[in-house]
Amino acid sequence: MSAYCVGKYLWPELVGKDGKYAVATIDRENPSVKAMIVLEGSVVTQDFRCDRVWVWVNAHGIVKRVPVIGKRSSWAGLSGKQGQVAKVTIKKENPYFDAIIVEEGFVVPLDYREDRVWIWVNKRGIVIKVPLIG
């Protein structure tokens, strides 16, 4: 947990659930934030805020991404960048995450952790997979 924001900050258990149910759950579990439904493909501000959670849903209203305080739960734009740049970017955008650089071929634990982001790099230190929470 970061010193920046208070309360629960991540809801992986809501992926696949109804968006309205997700908003109600988030609002109940962390009254310091406002959960807002966003349709996939919509444009949103990219600033980090402790009082906001985007609940990304598909056309059927089903949650498609892990709702998280701040900005995002995946970083597609970091593929092809230097691993250290990716790590700094992720930590700056969401200080909750433990961003870990891993060289391809290394073995990592298979458990899911909501505060961890694996940054997979090649031997030159270039990000080869989209960093995701897990």
The main β sheet shows up as: 3 strands, mixed
Structural class: alpha/beta
Terminus-to-terminus distance: 16 Å
What is the alpha-carbon Rg in Å? 15 Å
What do the pLDDT scores average to? Answer: 86
SSE run: HEEHEEE
Number-wise, the strands total 5
Residues in helix, %: 10-25%
Continuous helix count:
2
Tell me the strand order in the biggest sheet.
3-4-5
Proportion of strand residues: 15-25%
Uncertain segments: none
Shape: elongated
Protein architecture, described:
By secondary structure, the protein is α/β, with parallel strands linked by helices. It is 16% helix and 19% strand. The protein is built from two helices and five strands; from the N terminus they run H-E-E-H-E-E-E. It has helices at 19-29, 83-93; strands at 34-39, 52-57, 98-103, 116-121, 132-133. It has a three-stranded mixed sheet, with helices on one face. A two-stranded parallel ribbon has the order 1-2. The chain is elongated and about 45 Å long. The mean pLDDT is 86.
What keywords describe this structure?
three-stranded mixed sheet; 134 residues; single chain; alpha/beta; two-stranded parallel ribbon; 5 strands
Task: Note the topology.
Layout (H helix, E strand, L loop, with lengths): L18 H11 L4 E6 L12 E6 L25 H11 L4 E6 L12 E6 L10 E2 L1
Parallel strand pairs: 1-2, 3-4
Antiparallel strand pairs: 4-5
